């Protein structure tokens, strides 16, 4: 009598597990013992193959779960690093804003000093300064003050400021 086994929706017929008694002759119409043993080995082999595949899939699933956890950990680390960098950027922005305010206040003080100087003294100092700084100071001064300074400055510097002012418009 054959044993019926169902695995994953597949129906397997297996031969009886017990061996016939020693010296017993198979009846007419019954399969020979070697054929039955071969069929049993075939089914057992297929079951072993299915079990091996299941184990491989389980191992892959476990490996994927480990990789997924590693990715989650890396993602959390990256998010923390991004927050840290954003915080540092915000601190740098605040520091830069404060520095700009100080520089602006210093610039305004210096501009007041140059406006308070006599035109000849201011022109003499401006002629010794860097070109960019002079252009910036002259652009911040009112027209009357610049009109008094230009004739006292070096001619090439006055002409550069004039060209720069015209190009800016």
UniProtKB/TrEMBL annotation:
Residues 108-158 form the Magnesium transporter MgtE intracellular domain. Keywords: Coiled coil, Signal. Pfam families: MgtE_N. InterPro entries: Mg_transptr_MgtE_intracell_dom (IPR006668), MgtE_N_sf (IPR038076). This is Magnesium transporter MgtE intracellular domain-containing protein. Residues 50-95 form a coiled coil. Residues 1-19 form the signal peptide. It comes from Geobacter sulfurreducens (strain ATCC 51573 / DSM 12127 / PCA).
